[in-house]
Design goal:
The complex is a heterodimer of chains A (about 500) and B (about 280). Chain A has about 500 residues and is an alpha/beta fold. Chain A is about 65% helix and about 5% strand. In chain A, the strands form two sheets. Chain A has a four-stranded mixed β-sheet with strand order 3-4-5-6. A two-stranded antiparallel ribbon of chain A has the order 1-2. In chain A, α7 runs antiparallel to α18. The chains are: A alpha/beta (about 500), B alpha/beta (about 280).
Chain lengths: ~500, ~280
């Protein structure tokens, strides 16, 4: 009964808003699909079929109602080399394999790994993505006549200013229609969508990639698929979080992983390329009033209707109009607040963010960028926590007795500091080390303690360690209870 | 399984819902909970189809939506509280000393399902606020969803409150209405109430044995009961009988068929509720 209820809720609770929003979003899907098909080195129809497939399948299988998934720039940038060296058939196989990997990731509940991705990394990812989308437009703006610049500027003007006149007609649509009309009326000799390759003229058909099914092929496509699966899931998880926040509702991240996989498999078998969730288009969807799965479905279906039945018109659209729309998506995706935050946020966060951006822009691989970002955050964190540590030296009851009070986190980053806190030159016959308020997290820490004890003994002191059992009980590797909630209380009480 | 829960909203049914809930709570000696659910999906959305993304659109949109929600929720919360206070005053006047008030965010069904363990009887109106009860008799969409989701009996309040003195059980020998017979016999809800055991059937012979069992069960429970087997279509026959014998509450099994069959054949329960002039206690 609940199933039925939630079906209603996730499909039919907002029909008018979803249908309208879906059509608006479809208009923003077309430029991205076409632009990035060209960058990936395939015909626009590959990207358009993929967008249709992924949007429609993820409407049913995805875990975040109201999120838009389709052929994306982030994924397209990863397949450039594969297409160049091996061709379209290998791309389709790689797309299917990407889907399989993503389904496995969903089954292994890898969505939970997202908690290691800090906010700064997410901001870096988003900014890098915006920059990549922008950079992808540059080939259309280099070595062209001045007409293209005027057209693009006019397009951006329409997109940003038209909403002040009228908010019931999508301004990207107005931009595309007006620029197409102007270019036809003036007979401008500028590049149009039709010049970029084949557009869809039929509904997509099922086909099995024409490749040798052997280990050699797997070796070629597997590295690409793994990267695409990772990037796709990263962007989808981040977009899902953004939509969660915007709509104040929950998403099912593991279902989203698997749903993403199913969509990509479908896309691969229908002659499309791999895709994932799109931040910009999802924001447009929410802004236009889309909330449920229906909006994603409408976006996909409307996209296909547009390009299949209006293909002759679509081929006349000047690339400048699409470039203008994509520049808008790029500007809207970029987190401008993060620039002013550079001054106020902690330096380490800014470094993580900027490192993520630089790595991504340099490699065109968002997975690498996120990897570097996560690694840096972890290092900064370890460094920070290592500083939560001090050793106080007290004089005992008689003057020949020294008591060291160790408080805080002892692990590989602070172990060195721990050792240096002891005065080995002090000639004294009795030393007590009180460690019951310290946490010894790893072997490096235990090693350091051993080292200190041996060193003090070699100087002739009797060494007493108090509270070692409690302290080393925190050694996580031995700490069998660490996954129980009261283990944390026990650990904190113990000190 | 302890509370009588009354679903309060802004519809005209709120007053009879309070009265019948108070009656049931007093009869069952059960605590009364007044529940108001703030269902966000019912708030209208403004349309902005401009479809563009400005500088900092995500942050901007988030603050905008959050503010909109905050404003609406604050108002809805206040309104809901007023409804609950009105309802509280009403049930106190009906003699319930300390009703529990509860307000929840989320969907009605979700909230009721969460409360299911502590629900003995649910009382609700047959239409929500969006219906104007003067002009349409339709059954609101929530009734069927609630009855199909919950396992506790649901009392659909209808018309002005009148202490039930004559109760009619629509009996069709199904497991559900057999349960109804036992309920009628044993529950303090119907102590001292005179009962009518009514069936609508063309085939009177097969029914006889069941009717005899039902009659005996009810009489053994210490009630008076008349039995009748009617001819004709279920809904008109039952309602004609109800009017003729001044019945002030009907007990019946509800939504016994699948949604699919209902789609083609229609639902007896919905027919009954649509034409109802007295409260119906629905059993599942």
């Amino acid at each position: 009964m609940f199933m039925q209820y939630s079906l209603r809720q996730t499909w039919l609770s907002n029909i008018r808003g979803d249908v309208l929003a879906g059509t608006v979003v479809a208009l923003a899907l077309i430029p991205e699909a076409i632009a990035f098909s060209i960058i990936a080195g395939v015909d626009p129809k590959v990207g358009l079929y993929a967008s249709f497939c992924i949007a429609v399948v993820s409407a049913f299988a995805g875990g975040r109602p109201g999120m838009i998934s389709a052929a994306t720039g982030a994924m397209a940038l990863l397949m450039v080399m594969l297409v160049k060296e091996h061709g379209l058939q290998y791309l389709m196989a790689a797309t299917i394999l990407t889907g399989v990997i993503q389904i496995i990731a969903g089954a292994l509940k890898l969505g939970q790994l997202m908690r290691f991705v800090s906010r700064s990394v997410v901001t870096g990812f988003v900014n890098a993505l915006a920059i990549l989308i922008f950079m992808a437009q540059l080939p259309e703006l280099i070595h062209v006549t001045w007409h293209v610049y005027v057209m693009t500027a006019a397009g951006l003007g329409i997109i940003y200013l038209f909403p002040y006149v009228n908010r019931t007609v999508p301004s990207p649509l107005v931009c595309i229609v007006v620029l197409t009309a102007v270019s036809l009326a003036l007979g401008l000799d500028i590049r149009t969508v039709g010049d970029m390759g084949e557009l869809p003229d039929t509904l997509p058909v099922f086909l099995i990639p024409d490749i040798p099914w052997n280990l050699e092929t797997l070796k070629i496509i597997f590295p690409v698929s793994v990267t695409m699966a990772a990037v796709g899931l990263l962007e989808s998880m981040m977009t899902a979080t953004i939509v969660d926040d915007l709509t104040d509702t929950q998403s099912n991240k593991n279902r989203e992983c698997a749903g993403q996989g199913v969509s990509n498999i479908a896309s691969g078998f229908l002659g499309g390329m791999a895709g994932c969730a799109m931040i910009g288009q999802s924001v447009i969807n929410v802004k236009s009033g889309g909330r449920t799965r229906l909006s994603t479905l409408v976006a996909g279906v409307f996209l296909l209707i547009l390009v299949v039945f209006l293909d002759e018109w679509v081929s006349l659209i000047p690339m400048a109009a699409l470039v203008a729309v994509m520049i808008m998506v790029s500007i809207g995706t970029f987190s401008w607040a993060s620039l002013s935050n550079l001054r106020t946020h902690p330096k380490s966060s800014s470094v993580v963010m900027i490192a993520t951006v630089i790595t991504t822009v340099a490699t065109h691989n968002l997975a690498l960028g996120v990897g570097v970002g996560v690694l840096l955050s972890a290092l900064f964190y370890a460094n920070k926590v290592g500083q939560v540590f001090y050793v106080s030296a007290l004089v005992g009851d008689d003057h020949d007795h020294r008591i060291y009070n160790v408080v805080g986190q002892v692990f590989y980053t602070s172990a060195e500091q721990f050792v240096q806190s002891f005065d080995f030159k002090e000639a004294i016959s009795k030393v007590t080390i009180d460690v019951h308020r310290a946490h010894f997290w790893d072997l490096t820490a235990i090693d350091a303690l051993d080292k200190v004890i041996i060193k003090l003994r070699r100087e002739g002191a009797d060494v007493d360690v108090i509270g070692l059992n409690e302290a080393s009980a925190t050694l996580v590797d031995k700490f069998a209870e660490h996954d129980k909630p009261d283990a944390i209380d026990k650990m904190m009480d113990g000190h | 399984m302890s509370n009588v829960i009354a679903c309060i909203d802004g519809s005209s049914a709120a007053t009879p819902v309070c009265d019948y809930a108070a009656w049931a709570a007093a009869r069952l000696a059960a605590p009364l909970m007044l529940l108001h659910v703030l269902d966000q999906s019912r708030y209208p959305m403004e349309n902005d189809l401009s479809g563009n993304l400005g500088v900092g659109e995500r942050e901007h949109l988030l603050t905008e939506l959050a503010e909109l929600d905050a404003r609406r929720n604050k108002m809805a919360l206040e309104q809901g509280r007023l409804m609950l206070e009105t309802a509280k005053a009403r049930v106190i006047a009906d003699g319930i000393a300390e009703p529990v008030l509860r307000q929840r965010h989320g969907h009605l069904l979700e909230s009721l399902a969460e409360l299911e363990d502590e629900t003995r009887l649910l009382v609700m109106g047959k239409q929500g606020e969006e219906h104007s009860s003067d002009t349409d008799n339709d059954v609101g969409g929530n009734v069927e969803r609630v009855v199909r989701t919950l396992h506790s009996p649901v009392l659909i309040a209808q018309g002005e409150f009148k202490t039930p003195e004559v109760v009619m059980l629509a009996f069709d020998s199904s497991a559900t209405t057999r349960k109804g017979v036992e309920l009628l016999a044993a529950s303090p809800l119907f102590k001292g109430v005179s009962g009518h055991l009514v069936s609508v059937s063309k085939d009177k012979h097969t029914l006889r044995e069941d009717m005899e069992w039902a009659e005996k069960t009810i009489v053994d429970g210490g009630h008076q009961v008349c039995t009748a087997v009617l001819d004709g279509d279920i809904e008109p026959a039952l309602h004609a009988y109800q009017q003729e014998h001044n019945v002030d509450m009907i007990v019946m099994g509800a939504y016994g068929h699948s949604r699919l069959r209902e789609f083609f054949v229609g639902s007896t329960t919905n027919n009954m509720l649509r034409k109802a002039s007295v409260p119906h206690l629905l059993l599942r």
